[in-house]
Design brief:
mainly beta; 4 helices; elongated
Length: about 325
């Protein structure tokens, strides 16, 4: 159950531009090109400084592909120390041909500051897919916002959905799913809340993701415990945690990938078959599926237990 991929997948999508530049600069000194195709055509609006691809539009850079009914790249001229761009010989570079709008995005004189995808948006990497009706990536702030009626992010082990938006803030390294946010693992475990916020750890010093075998616990069926990827998850509002054995609800929750446990707080209920316990806090072991109810200081737990039914774990 790779909850860490909420942010990791979106991070790969959102930072593709920067990664492409860094990777290719090391090899050739030039940014990796963006390849744009569209069935109806590509329009260059020089006065608006936009390149618009319409009709099954596709933009590819490295391992990231963006599909949409329409793609809009907003660009601007790069500033230079002398106020004017020039090549190594000191000559002003030639302007791209008007018949080749794609070259505007790939020459060294212009920079994209925002990419917008409109209609049937599908953003994909070799392992993950994101879907929505509208996506905007602001490169100045390094913020990606995906909105629409059918928001979904799929990974090899999880499906993440939200009603309002799926967002990634690169500087703060936060991934946020808003509005009936839900993460469902391939083994059936899930976390739901009004808002789910994931806090990601910085990448390894090498700049490359660590192999799965290096961080995956030997006894874990998935990569839920990869603390090097995700440090913490906050679930806010109407939190519901489903495990194979129990359902736990509360007003808020915090999930920690290291110990693989979640803590619920506020109006907590633990339900197992016909049994129900109520209290102020609960600990849920996401690996074993066991939920333990905790009483507030000076308080007590309460509930209903049916004889000969599955046991609960009060404390």
């Amino acid at each position: 159950m790779k909850f860490w991929l909420i942010g990791f997948s979106v991070l790969a999508i959102a930072t593709a531009h920067a990664q492409g530049q860094a990777g290719s600069s090391a090899n050739s000194g030039a940014p990796a090109p963006i390849q744009i195709t569209a069935k109806q055509g590509i329009e260059w609006r020089q006065s608006d400084q936009e390149v618009i691809a319409t009709g099954s539009a596709q933009a590819v850079r490295g391992d990231v592909t963006v599909h949409a009914d329409r793609l809009i790249a907003h660009y601007r001229k790069k500033a230079s120390p002398n106020g004017a761009a020039a090549d190594a010989a000191g000559k002003p570079p030639a302007n791209p041909a008007a018949s080749d709008p794609e070259s505007v995005l790939n020459n060294g004189n212009s920079e994209i500051y925002e990419i917008e995808a409109v209609g049937n948006v599908h953003i994909s990497t070799p392992t993950d897919n994101a879907y929505g009706d509208h996506a905007v990536y602001n490169m100045d702030d390094a913020v990606l916002v995906l909105t629409g009626q059918h928001l979904k992010l799929t990974t090899p082990h999880d499906v993440i959905t939200a009603q309002d938006s799926i967002e990634y803030y690169s500087v703060k390294r936060q991934a946020i799913a808003r509005g009936h946010a839900l993460i469902v693992a391939d083994d059936g475990r899930s976390i739901a809340a009004d808002t789910i916020i994931g806090y990601l750890a910085p990448p390894p010093a090498s700049g490359k993701a660590a192999p799965a075998s290096a961080t995956k616990p030997a006894n874990s069926p998935d990569m839920l415990g990869q603390a090097g990827k995700l440090q913490k998850v906050d679930a806010i509002g109407h939190v519901v945690i489903h495990t194979p054995n129990q359902t736990a609800t509360g007003n808020s929750g915090v999930y920690l990938p290291g110990p693989d446990v979640a803590r619920l707080g506020g109006n907590v209920h633990i339900i197992s078959g016909p049994n129900q316990l109520n209290g102020s806090d609960a600990l849920v072991n996401m690996r074993t599926g066991v939920a333990t109810l905790l009483a507030a200081p000076g308080g007590q737990v309460a509930g209903t237990v049916t004889p000969n039914s599955a046991p609960l774990a009060p404390k």
